[in-house]
Amino acid sequence: MSQDKYDSLLEKLKQEKNWPSVYMFKFIIAADNQKIALVQARFSDEAVISQNQSSTGKYVSITAKEVMMNPDAVIKKYKEVETIEGVMIL
User: Which burial class, exposed, middle or buried, applies to 1 when counting CB atoms under 10 A from its CB (0-12, 13-18, 19+)?
Assistant: First the structure.
């Protein structure tokens, strides 16, 4: 995600949600157990994380629901996850 997209998302989050709130993150990544584990490790033990494999088995979608205290925490989490090579943020 570019900084412009983060700025836009930050403004939307400030307008649309009451904080703290459960936020749903969605990612797609190659079906690589190490990379999947790296994504999951960015979330707390309280997060609800689910995975779905693509029909070809090459990719995995990861959905994580976690309580975020404010919009800045959401952006920070996205920036943490985007450092993982090959992750696509939805």
Answer: middle
Total residues found in the chain within this entry? 90
Q: What are phi and psi of 84, to 5 degrees?
A: -80, 125
Task: Give residue 4's pLDDT band: very low, low, confident or very high (50, 70, 90).
Answer: confident
pLDDT, tens only, 45-59: 999 999 999 999 999
CA distance 66 to 89: 16
Measured between alpha carbons, how far is 51 from 7 in angstroms, rounded to an integer? 28
pTM (whole model) above 0.70: yes
Residue located via tokens 């999951």? 40
Q: What is the DSSP string of 8-57?
A: HHHHHHHHH--SSEEEEEEEEEES-HHHHHHHHHTS-TTSEEEEEE-TTS
